[in-house]
Amino acid sequence: MIGNDIVDLAKAKEESNIFRPRYLEKVCSTTEVNLVLSNANSITNFWRIWTMKECAYKAFQRKFSIKTIFNPFAFTCQFEDSEFGRVSFQNYQLSVETIQTDEFMYSEVINSKTNQRFFGSTLDFLLDLKTKLNLQSLPEVSKTTEGIPVLNLPNKTLPISKTHHGKFQVYLY
After folding, report:
1. Is 13 helix (H, G, I), strand (E, B) or coil?
2. Hey, which of 9, 57, 67, 169 has its CA 20 to 30 A from 105?
């Protein structure tokens, strides 16, 4: 399964007020709300939960053909440590890795297959793949009829996940 999400923390600070009335209760379980509010890093914990839910949603959307309406309350998060956690959806659970810097919060589903991530523009991503895979022409990114991104190579189509927010964009493939 493949899914990722990033939040530009400066942009999120400008545009989001996670402490407005009832907002946390709309996107977080009671346990998650307590995790956010009982910690000195409440904003960081919130964005970690958010990115974990989003990346899991993308993975489950691909697996189960879920409608493209994100319902954050349908997903619950648990932190294992500062980097790893789990996201539950119905009777399923995914492991998630989170990378945090001063500039962004990034989470991706941990897959048994080795996934690679690429931080940068779409053109740079495609140029990098062309070189790595020794292709004659640039591969193409397209979407399925369900709106799920895929990478079109000369002889096959591969699942990818793309996330962008503010000044950051990341491909997972």
Report:
1. helix
2. 67
Tell me: do 11 and 85 sit in the same domain: yes
> Which stretch of DSSP H or E encloses residue 113?
none
Distance CA 95, CA 102 (A): 23
pLDDT at 72: 84
The secondary structure of residue 109, as a DSSP letter, is: E
Structural domain span for residue 55? 4-109
Say what the pTM is.
0.92
Residues 22 and 79 in one domain: yes
| C-alpha closest to that of 7 among 120, 107, 82 | 107
- The Cα 24–Cα 160 span in angstroms is 30
Split into its structural domains, the chain has a count of 2
* Residues of the chain scoring pLDDT < 70: 68, 112, 114
Please give the pLDDT value at position 163: 97
Instruction: Judge contact between 1 and 56, C-beta under 8 A.
Output: no
